[in-house]
Structures are given as structure tokens and as C-alpha cells.
Amino acid sequence: MLALVKAEAGPGLTLTEVPIPAIGINDVLIKVRKTGICGTDLHIESWDPWAAKTIKPPLVVGHEFVGVVEAVGSNVSDFHPGELVSGEGHVVCGRCRHCLAGQRHLCANTVGLGVGRDGAFAEYVALPMTNVWHHRPGIDEDVAAVFDPFGNAVHTALSFPVLGEDVLVSGAGPIGLMATAIVKHAGARFIVVSEPNAFRRELAARMGATVTVDPRARDLGDVQAELGMVEGFDVALEMSGNAAALRTAIDNMAHGGNVAILGIPTGEIPLDVNRIVFDQITLRGIYGREMYEDWYKMSVLVQGGLDISPAITHRFPFREHEAAFDAARSGDSGKVIMDWSAA
Ligand code: NAD
Ligand code: ZN
Predict the structure, then answer these.
(1) pTM for the structure as a whole
(2) Can 16 be counted among the known catalytic residues?
(3) Helices 174-185 and 147-157: crossing angle, nearest 10°?
């Protein structure tokens, strides 16, 4: 089969022939239809210090996908050829304290699809049946392809109550954009999206932002005054990984406010702990998706009318992977999809 492979240590990816993955008795083999490009894939492609430390070539990259069940192992009874599925990219151990308690997102032995095992930028991908998710009838395939980052957005956006609350979203990358639509759907009052990129601010407005702000040009205190807010934001979703964005969020919280942090910074961030203590602010780190409550929520939220599709802005055939990666890297994009269905 054809796959996009990190063939050796160093920049670049190669579209090349590799064997179709073998499956064990508990596994599902999936014929890939569409894939989404994640920031992780950009790090692996460019071979930054994180990738050089983490990735062991050769590796098929990619973890955001939708596809059709091709074959199943002899122990698998609830997946059948032809069914439309996506996969949870975090393969957990199943045996640690948290896995046994049903808290699989807390597993300390997680192996990432397209990071620690061969991934989904390929004609076929294999996963344990416990990682495969059936889609509901009628789902848009592009939306189904990005259930992985959509799940990050659901996990973060719904980790604190937002009904009637004022929410700050820092960073309108694909995940911040989806989170904006989710908190809107969930009944937030004001949603302020802070994002330096104009293309993404425009998308954020389409996803339901009350106000979009360029953090280089306008102070959040000024935005609060315009909206008639007096006590600060009740909830902040940190989705930029930017140090200044996190500090600004903390400075603009109401007493007792909740900050969910998904963005991954490149280094340590000094914080004003006095402010966190005296304003009684909760900071919560978010990693991955809750298995499988967030997957359930995604499926039913889409059925209930939540539309995240405006966050998907570019589509390429997989042979144009270089153009697809360029679009994802440019910043003037939301989610970028590669189509493998014609492979
Ligand atoms: P992205 O890099 O496309 O989006 C980040 C956005 O933040 C960009 O649009 C950027 O312009 C904006 N930004 C930069 N400086 C800013 C500032 N000072 N204020 C406000 N916005 C600013 O990333 P994404 O794919 O949407 O992911 C969002 C973040 O979540 C990234 O940091 C990513 O690494 C991280 N992530 C975490 C997990 C997890 O499980 N914790 C999973 C996926 C992604
Ligand atoms: Zn575990």
C-alpha cells in the first residue's frame, strides 16, 4: 500500500510502498478514506527537537482519520467490513489503575498512533478494536476525519460548565475554532476569541464568537468593558500554547474562574501565583480525549445540530501531501484534509 512515511531521522516525509499492516485477533484493519493534518504531523515532518527525541523511523505518520472496516481479527464481533469508523489515536495499556477504573485518558502508558506506532496517512491502518469508533449514519466524512481534534475541543470546552457563562478562547487554530462552536452550542453568553491571525479571527466569527480580538492590538479589559462585563471571564480555554496568552487569560478571569489548558507551550511559563491564589482560579491541564465519553458527545452533538465544518478549510488528494502540509503550516487555514479514497 502507499503511505506517507518518516523514512529516516531528518526533515521531510516520503510517499512510498509499505506492507499492509498485519492484524492480531483483537484488531481491526481499516481502509482509510480521509485524514486530517495535526500540528504533531507538522512537528514530525519538520523534525523539530521534540520529533528528534520522540520518533523512531521508519514510521507511517498521521492519526486523524475516517475509514471503512476492511477486515477484523477472530475475537472481534462488533465491527464488520464496510462500516464507517474513526479511531482513538491514544492506544492505552488497559491494565493500569486508571485504565481499570475506566479513566483511560489518564493512562501513563499511552502509545500514540502515527507517533509510537504506524499511523493513518496510508491506504490502511490497524488498531485494537477498543480504539475503533462507529460513526452514526449521515455523518459528513470530512467532519468524521477530524474527530480526534474535535474530541480535544470537546474535552476542553466542556470540562467546566459554560451555560450562561462568559468564555475566553485563546488561539483560534482548528481546535480553538471547534471549541468556539461547542461553547456556543452549549449556551455560553459571551465568547471572546483572541487570535493574532486575521484569517482565523474571521473563521472564529463564523463559528460563533461574540467578539474576536487581535491580542497585539487590543486589551481584553477593553473588550470586557465594551460587552458590559464587570467581573472577568468565568471560563478560559487556552488553545494557543503561547505564554503571553496564558498570562493574559489569568489576568482577565473572574474570581473563582476556571482555566482549561490544552495548548502545549515550547518551554516553561512563569505565572503570577498570588493572582491564582487570591482570585481562587482553577487551572486544569487537558490531554487527549476522554475514552469514550467525549466520542459519544461528539457523535450526539453533531446529530443535535452542532456544525464544526466551517473549521475545515482545505482539501487535497493525498498525492498532493506537500501542498497540504504547506496549507496547514501557513496559518491561513483551519483544518486541512487529505483524501485517500481514490488510492
Ligand atoms: P494551532 O497551532 O493551529 O493554533 C494555535 C493558535 O494560537 C494559532 O492560530 C496562533 O496564531 C494562536 N496564537 C499564537 N499566539 C497567540 C496569543 N498570544 N494569543 C492568542 N492566540 C495566539 O494549533 P491547534 O491544532 O488548534 O491546537 C491548539 C493547541 O493545542 C496547540 O498548542 C497544540 O499543540 C495543542 N494540542 C494539545 C493537545 C492535548 O492533548 N493537550 C492535543 C492537540 C493539540
Ligand atoms: Zn493504562
Answers:
(1) 0.98
(2) no
(3) 50
